[in-house]
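A.,

Following up on our hallway conversation. Structure tokens first:
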């Protein structure tokens, strides 16, 4: 049995206003909290025991997931009193682990949607005799990520943080946010202080001669750190482009949850999700978007690549394109919000207050 740690303590600052009332891993993606997809994929790979490293809004997780028995898992929770970074969070949950020093422990970041072959990563770790194994993926523009070059056997040779010049970009392989640690390595991380695995733990292990193995898996991978990425990830789950056994329905153009109401002539496309108790009125068009529980899309509104928060209301004929509307916000009729517009929770925008000319 392989056990796992899920790092779910981040504040999700880049996702605001989605994370004002909800921790990032609990924001719904394809009809269920995003964390549900990660737990389901881990369970499908044979993981039975998972420790959640929580911090921001930590009180939300356990009431929803409980002891994990409904998911075929044994879940435990450890809360950071002060932010400890990725390495510190991993070390902080060590007392809950059951693995022996030479046994592997899976570690996942709580904001990555991936089709990673988890069993293959564990197998690679065991067969190469690595101390730590990293999931690597290839990206076209690696400047926003940490580069991880490897030798011909896949052994990691360096960690290069966010290169900017062409000379610094020596590989397109990046750290994809999933790892296998030998339990002894976890116990060696300093306790009680902030530690970054990317900037301290991994470079330190490499300098000491430890074996760090990279496994390139270029299946679906998306960092859900921005609202636009989160909406895209949810749509990809509904469309079946991103794999998850936790999608509550058949994959296709739309996912309408029980108790939602959709007018017969409303059009839902592109992996759109309509949450429980939400309503989409006649003539509305919703494409590639997430409409959370209890929200209302009034008649003739057009919503594209956007997220509408729980209980929010979008007025008649209003256009949203690449927008994020916070929980319980009210957008009046005949508005246009485009190009990354964000409306905070409980905000109100009167009718016809925001318009874009056709040449903007």
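Then the amino acids I'd put at each of the 360 positions:
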């Amino acid at each position: 049995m392989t056990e796992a740690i899920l790092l779910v303590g981040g504040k999700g600052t880049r996702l605001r206003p989605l994370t004002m009332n909800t921790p990032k891993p609990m924001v719904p993606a394809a009809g269920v909290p995003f964390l549900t997809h990660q737990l389901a994929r881990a369970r499908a790979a044979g993981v039975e025991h998972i420790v959640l490293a929580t911090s921001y809004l930590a009180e939300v997780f356990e009431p929803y997931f409980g002891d994990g028995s409904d998911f075929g898992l044994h879940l435990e929770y450890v809360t950071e009193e002060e932010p400890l970074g990725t390495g510190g969070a991993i070390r902080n949950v060590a007392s809950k682990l059951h693995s022996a020093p030479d046994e592997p422990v899976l570690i996942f970041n709580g904001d990555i949607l991936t089709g990673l072959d988890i069993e293959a990563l564990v197998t690679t770790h065991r067969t190469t005799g690595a101390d730590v194994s990293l999931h690597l993926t290839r990206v076209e523009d690696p400047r926003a990520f940490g580069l991880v070059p490897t030798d011909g056997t896949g052994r990691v040779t360096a960690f290069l943080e966010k290169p900017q010049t062409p000379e610094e970009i020596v590989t397109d392989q990046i750290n994809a946010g999933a790892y296998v640690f030998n339990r002894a390595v976890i116990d060696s991380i300093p306790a009680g202080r902030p530690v970054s695995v990317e900037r301290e733990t991994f470079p330190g292990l490499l300098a000491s001669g430890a074996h760090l193995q990279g496994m390139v898996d270029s299946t679906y991978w998306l960092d859900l750190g921005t609202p636009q990425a989160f909406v895209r990830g949810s749509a990809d789950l509904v469309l079946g482009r991103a794999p998850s056994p936790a999608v509550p329905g058949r994959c296709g153009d739309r996912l309408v949850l029980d108790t939602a109401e959709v007018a017969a002539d409303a059009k839902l496309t592109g992996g759109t999700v309509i949450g429980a108790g939400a309503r989409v009125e006649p003539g509305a068009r919703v494409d590639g978007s997430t409409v959370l529980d209890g929200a209302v899309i009034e008649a003739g509104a057009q919503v594209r690549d956007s997220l509408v928060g729980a209980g929010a209301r979008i007025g008649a004929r209003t256009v949203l394109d690449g927008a994020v509307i916070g929980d319980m916000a009210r957008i009046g009729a005949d508005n246009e919000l485009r190009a990354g517009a964000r409306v905070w929770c409980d905000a109100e925008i009167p009718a016809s207050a925001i318009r874009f000319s056709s040449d903007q």
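Helices lie at 34-44, 61-65, 85-92, 118-128, 183-188, 197-207, 227-239. Curious whether your intuition agrees with the design.

B.
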